[in-house]
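Aggregate trends can hide what the representation actually does to any particular protein. The sequence in question and its structure tokens are set out directly beneath this paragraph.
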Amino acid sequence: MSTTNANYAKGLVVTAIGGLALTIDIPLILLADGDPWSIVMLRSGTTFLASIALWLIWALVRKNPPTLIPGRAGLLVAALYGTASVTFVMAVFHTSTANLVFILAFNTVFASLLGWLFLGERPRASTMVAMAFMLGGVSIIVLDSLGRGNIVGDLFAVASSILLASAITVTRASAKDMGFAALVAFALPALLGVVMVSQVGFRVEQPLWVLLTGIVVLPLSFFCLATGPKYISGPEVAMFYLLETVLTPVWVWMIFAEVPTTASLIGGTILVVTLIAHSVWALTSARRRRPARQAAPAS
């Protein structure tokens, strides 16, 4: 496999791992049974500390750790991810899980539009077709769920989607490794959480669930998802956020007995099948183009 194909495959695998890990974040937050700002403080604080510990271990073992905040672009990415972390937790507590993850699915469209406007990355025909199918799947779900969530929570979810797409676009434009920048970003919501908790008090009935998501789930998912744009396009990275759209309602159903609707199952199936088909097609196409370029006569 050529270096280009190997990097593309690496990007797909790394981003898929991040997307899968992210699907259990909301169930863990709900299991913790706490106040929103207490969750923000504990979740963000443990994620920040875990990321710093991981970076120090990397520095001791490998001697060449990635830059925590790579320049101004890194600061911007950290600010975007940090703000998205706050709006995400607020959305968890102010709208339904289904509405939240469905709205986050539009991350793909926002990332594609931002990449097109600011980076001149016109989506491939295959990506646009895949996006059309995914929008169809999301539309089936959203139309069925229309009016079931709270408008404030839905707006928080929209803000999260735009912020994540913006972070992906900046990462793509910089071509820098933003894996740790996305994790260090949790310092911002952690500090904000401390300020708010000092005023309203701390309440988390089952803190171990928050510790699990802060120490394991979020560092793994955000590092992988923030590394993905280094190897694959922004819209393709955003597609893997759709795994949360499909699988999180399933985990919530298994844990809290919230049965997904028929429309959710139909739309979710369309999303997953499209995501897998597009990734397989893109990797296969890249492999075919490489031999063709090598066989072409020099001009």
Remarks:
- The two ends are 25 Å apart (CA to CA).
- The CA atoms of residues 24 and 248 lie 6 Å apart.
- Residues 18-286 form one domain.
